[in-house]
Amino acid sequence: MQRVAILASGSGSNAENIIRYFENRQLCVFSFILSNKTDAYVHERARKLDIPSFTISKQGFERGEALQLLKAYGIDFIVLAGFLLKIPENILKEYPNKIINIHPALLPKYGGKGMYGTHVHEAVTANKETESGITIHYVNENYDEGAIIFQAKCEVLPTDSAEDVAKKVHALEYAYFPRVIESLLLNRL
Ligand code: GRF
Fold it and tell me: Choosing a second label site near 98 at 20 to 30 A (CA), which of 40, 67, 87, 158?
């Protein structure tokens, strides 16, 4: 059974959605949820899901504390679900092609530093895009630049607000992220 860690900085709705999806699929175990924010709501979700959760600061990540935790739990695969820090070299080296991220836009557009959450959807509507979507990709040393694994699109109407786009993109995240993880864990992709 593969051991998976989920990293999240905020609400954690994707983390919860993924964990619930695998609840009756004996494919993997979610060993813990790790955040860089002590007050992230994802800790509350972890408590309700009976999953251990931890907080390690940005400095702690750089000092190798997160890698220590990942190894202590024998983690095989890392899922970033709304995690806002860059993954340090010490973890990238230990987990080649074993760390994936979801980005709420069609990379390479609307990616990179500062492009997260509503900032993405505001840029998409400001530029009058006719579509947006999600990108699931491998993580490398730069924000949102690893090899793309999967993309799904949604229509953006001229009347859509950033909030409207966010809702459509979240719906794609909840529909596809768990299934892409399942395929990767089954080595289908
Ligand atoms: C999602 O939109 C995801 O695409 C992005 O961060 C957001 C996380 O939302 N990486 P949540 O914390 O899972 O609710």
Answer: 40
